[in-house]
Each structure stands twice: as structure tokens, then as C-alpha cells.
Task: structure prediction
Amino acid sequence: MQLKCSFGQKSDQKSRFDRFCRLSPMSGVGVTIQPNSCRQMGQRLVCILVLIVGALSSSVAFSDNRTVAIESLSPTLEHRVETERIVQLMQRYHYKPVPVDDELSEQIFDRYLETLDPEKSFFLASDIEEFSQFRFELDDVLRDVKLNPVFDIFKRFRQRMDEQAMVAQGLLKRKFDFTIDENYTFDREDAQWPQSQKSMDELWRKRVKNDILNLRLADQSNDELIETLEKRYKRMATRVSQYGANDVFQFFINAYTQSVEPHTSYFSPRSSENFNINMSLSLEGIGTALQTENEYTVIRRIIAGGPAALSEQVSVDDRIVGVGNGEDEEIVDIVSWPLDEVVDLIRGPKGSTVRLKILPVSAPAGSPPKIITLVRDKIKLEEQAAKSSVVEVTNNEQMKRIGVIDLPTFYLDSAAQAEGQSDYRSTTRDVQRLLTELTASDNAVDGVIIDLRGNGGGSLVEATQMTGLFIKDGPVVQIREASGQVSAQEDDDPTVAYDGPLAVLVDRNSASASEIFAAAIQDYGRGVVLGEPTFGKGTVQSVVPLDQEGKLGQLKITIAQFFRVNGEGTQHRGVVPDVLFPTSVDSVAQGERGLDNALEWAEVSADKYDKWSANKPDFKQLQAQHESRYRANDWFDLLVEELEVQRTDRAQQHISLVETIREEKNVARGSDREERLQLYRKAFGASGSDTDNENDEAEIPDIILDEAANVLIDATNELR
Result:
């Protein structure tokens, strides 16, 4: 969770920090803030946050397209001031202060090199050996603020990048034999650094050969693919040549902060401009949040109600490799482009068309990209609001109607609330209205499912108040600060909006405020939680400007941790459902559990709260009934099969460079995957997607939602 905090001078630094940071925290994937805090900070806040993760994989803003002179890459006075303040903040206010010592220095050293060259395809082993003199000295670099070694390493990286870009362009002149039985290792995370220039050149020979083969299989002519790759390799070097001193400093400081904990990041002054809450009630575009990962632009979030979500053609972690405007304009290869330039290319006015060339996350390495067409539109707050529907299922030969409230995010129009507008939008208000409609006496449903699949969080206030719609009163979540002090967010309203059968449906992307709500419903015994273990983000972040004038950057720092009312943490483990669905086996390394240096699970003392009922269903029996049902369901078989295929593909590190083998595999994959992929997108796509699209040729059911309805009916029958 994130909150903009002020940072004063030395005399009042702590009191000013505390005053701002004790306000309601904000989610790392949404917004949470008290109305009076909005007035105090003079900001009009809504529920959309543009989140940019630091390091080379983040957005780096460029002032122009000119090459930065390599001799100008040196630390500045501002970097010295920022380093001192960042180290001070990390030591005094981070939830898990880590000593700046040799052990940390070693981690920073490895992470900085990984940031620059994650695939070990630019630095030579001799470079790493030369740099090893700094392995246990980067703690001294931070304390003494003598940053020259950091810049020296980057200059060598830029040199190697220029050299390999030239090698790659030269290799395009060769004629490759695609009948030779050899493989390309595309995942080099655990590989060794090349021992010589000869071994480096061999690595790049195979990489270029693979790039050519990929484009051949995508039906590009020889002239077209040579032109595409020549531009790509030139852009690869140009991108690095445009990094300035502030960018280099940002890479290094983030190697430090993320060696402590993954949600703590530094943003340079220019990057800080991108880290802003959108000031209007709508965004215009395709409705995705993007991030650079190595050379690729990756979709990190799909905004409910946006063109991308409504198309049902994209998924989180899909890679965009080409962009074209309009129906006829040439699609431009964007591999190795800076993120801000990619965003500029994708952006456009409402009603205009953009075509994206995508490598789906579900597709194995070497698969040809697909092209999708989207019409840009405005993404309004109303389109991300809670929506209701009714699912009809037959259980034990009886037809039951289950109400579903689909909640893409926990939102609150704080500014409208602060201004005293009576009709301000909020999650709690909307859900309460939908509950009233679903339980109307003339057509009341037999139970309610709160669908939090893909809900990355949002307003802590709304998560607390919405929980109060289903319980009498009491604590909802506990928050422990770095000092060890524990406080609780409580529902103090004894009225209950809905007291009937309740289920909460979650998945691997349900995070933060979603986990708070699901955990509270589970702890109170108010309903049954279904689906997959959730993301596991149980920490609170604050965004701290490093000066008053905005000349320096800002630090997003972890300052607290969430705990359930039963005392257990949501961090790392997430919320484990009462009934696990078969897709859960794929979520072991997902979310917080897959992040380096993530805070471990912890617990505090349980708070005082009254259970909803002394009775609860037999979850083992519910699990058995669920498993019996899904094993007899052909759709579930298809979904589990697709997940297994993807799991196998992700474990792959090598790919054949024989063209006929690649063609055969692509044909085999494509012949029977489309139906499974549609089912996969239905199960794991963005919340709020258009399930009633009349243009869909195949009606793919939401088998996850249908099964959740069946489990809720089983639980209700058991308690009768």
C-alpha cells in the first residue's frame, strides 16, 4: 500500500513523516486515503494508480533522443544528497531495517549486475572478475557516498552493449542453415558469464539465428526480417546510450532497496513524474499498465472496463512486440524500445484503432506472435465499478439462483466525498445497492458470491466498510508498524446488509485489500472462501519525496504490515481458500511467494472478535464434492490440460533451431489449443470482461464461477 508522505528538514523530519504516514495508507495497486488527507495534501484523488517498478525493468524517461556522452556519466551533488537521505530513511523507517554491511553489499553487487545484464549476454567473465573488487565495498559506497565504481561498471556495460549490437548487425549478413541440429538457450538466468569473446560471439550467433527463425515462421520475407532486426539491434544500443547519470543512479539505488525488500523503490526526479495518481475520472487508451522486462514490453495489469479487457484477447504477462496505428499502417517492431516511447505509440484518441503484435504468456518459446486490433476508448470509474449478475446452476436436481457481485477493485472517489457530494462513488455504497437488488423479496437469490478474481486491491477504508456489510461489527484488519505498535481498522456499524449464504471467490491475482476482505470473512466464519491462494501482499508502502522543492527524487518505502484479526499475516502466504480449485497447483511460485527478498509470513496476537456462527461446514466434505464434480467436467479437463502445458513450457530453457521441428511443434500446439486458451482467458482474464459478446463464435462458460456457485450451495445444504 502506498501513501504520499512529506519529508521535512532535519529538525522536523520525523514528526512531519509520522504526521503524514499515520494517515490511511494507500495500496500498491490502488488508492486508499482519508478524505481529510485529500484536503490536507491538496490533491484530487481517484482509484487509479500508475505503478512503475524501479530498476532497468522500469520506465526510464528520456528528455530527447540524443546520445548521452559517456564521459558525462558521473555522480552529481544531488546524487550524494539523495543517497544520504535514502540510507537514512531505510535505516530509520523501513519495516525491516537491514544493516549496510558486507553481506548486503554482496547482494547489491549481484543485483546491480543482474539489473544491467539479466541474461548474461553482454559482460564477459573477465569484466565480472575485474568488478569483484567492489563485491564487498558497495556498503562503503553507500555510507561514504563515493559512487564512482557504480558509474564505472555502467560505462563498461554500455561499451559491451555497443560491441554486441555491432556483432549482431554483422551476423545478419550471414546465411544460416536451419537444418543443423542445434539449440538456442533463451533462459540464461542461471548460466555462467561468457569466458571469452569467442564464446560471447557464439552465444550471439545462436540468438540472431533464433530471431531470424522467429520472423521466418511469422511469414516475414528475408528483406523484411533483416530490416526489422537491424533496427532492433540498433535500438538496443541506442536505448542504453540515452541513459543519463540520473538513470544510472536509479538503477544502483534500486539494486540497494530491492536487496532489502521488493516493494521499496527509488524514483529519479524525471521518473517521479510518471508515478502520479491520475487526476481525472477517466483514462484514455486501451486499458493496460505496461512495464519493460529485459527487451520486452510486458502487460502487467489489465484495467476492468477497458478495450483490452473487453476484447478478451490479452492476458497479464503477455509481451507486446509490435504496434501499428490504424487498420493499414505498418506494425513497428518495438523490441528494445524504451517504455515511454512504446506508450506514446500505443496512446491515441478515443475511437481510433491500434493493432498490437503479441507473444501470449500462454504460448511456448518460439511460437509466432498474434495480431489483435483494439479501438481506444475512455476508461471511466463507472466502468470499473461493482456489477451484479445471476448464475443458475442445478445442484442435486434442484435449480438454484446465485447472485454474483463482480468487484474489479476497491474504489473510492475521495475528492467527491471530501467536497460533500452526496452521490460520490464508493465500493461499499455500490455493493450495498446491488445486494438490495439481488435480495428483493419477489426474486431473491439463494446465495451471493463476491467475485474478487483479478482484484489487485485499492481502498483500505472501503475493504473495511464493505466487510461491515456482512458482519455485525468488530476489527477487520490489524496493522503493525516498524516500531512494533499494532492497531486495528474496525467496522463500528452493527447493521448487516446481507446475512444469507456467502462465498468469496479469489485467485492468484487477488491482492492487498482483496486479501483483507477475504481473510476477514474467513476469520469471522461468515462465508466460504473459494479458488486459489491469493497474491500474498501484506505490506504497506509510503511514497516519500526527498526534498520539498521536487528537485530530488522520491522513495517508496515499506513501513508496516497487515495482519488478520486472528493474528496471522496475509504477507507471503496470502489467503488460503477453504476449498481449493484445481488451478491452485499452478500458483505455488506466483505472487509475493515468487519475489526475491519478500518479507516472510509472521503473526501477532489475535484481536477480540465474535464469530458469525458456532457452526461451520465440513470443508473436507466440500472439497471432496468439488473434486468429484470437476473430474466429471470436460471443461475443467481442458483448463487443467492447458495449465499443465503452460507449466511445461515455462520450465523449458532451450529451443530447437531446426526450422522443420519448430514448424511441426507450432502446428501441433495450434491445432488443439484455441478452445483451451479461450477457457484460460475466461478463468484468468481481467475482471469485468464482456461475457455477453455477441460476436463470440464459441460460448466458453465461466466454469470457475459456476463451480463456486455449486460449492456455495453444498455449504448451505450442509448447515441446514
Observations:
- The chain has four domains: 83-260, 287-375, 381-540+560-616, 630-718.
